Amino acid sequence: MLKIYIDASTKGNPGPSGGGFMIIGEGLYVQKSFPFTQKLTNHQAEFSVLSSLLDYLLEENLVEHTITIHTDSKVVAQAIAKKFTKNSAFDSLVEEILIKFALFPLLFLKWIPESQNKGADHLARQGLAKALKL
Questions:
Q1: What whole-number distance in Å separates Cα of residue 14 and Cα of residue 3?
Q2: pLDDT of residue 41
Q3: FRET label pair with 48: which of 58, 72, 80, 115, CA 20 to 30 Å apart?
């Protein structure tokens, strides 16, 4: 079982953005922070972090685990749960994520309060700092 925490950080809306995630499992502990090269809104950055995480899990062949992803973005959690977003600007991001979700047999996305997502928040801020240097 893998517990994963994700977050994004943006300066301006849209603006430079970064993301980060923590993966915690038996014998596995991964922390990643990374910049996004394009200016994003905060919500776009949150969706992009989730997409980047899924790419990482696929690349590392971590598909067969039971995975719970924790996000403090209600917009992301609700859009993925409903397989729909009211904001057409997010349509392609949601569609891309749902295609990737289908590749995982046991993958869950859960909303958590910001107070329970401090580690991923710290990593996202590191990613933003990297983006500001680009």
A1: 30
A2: 95
A3: 115
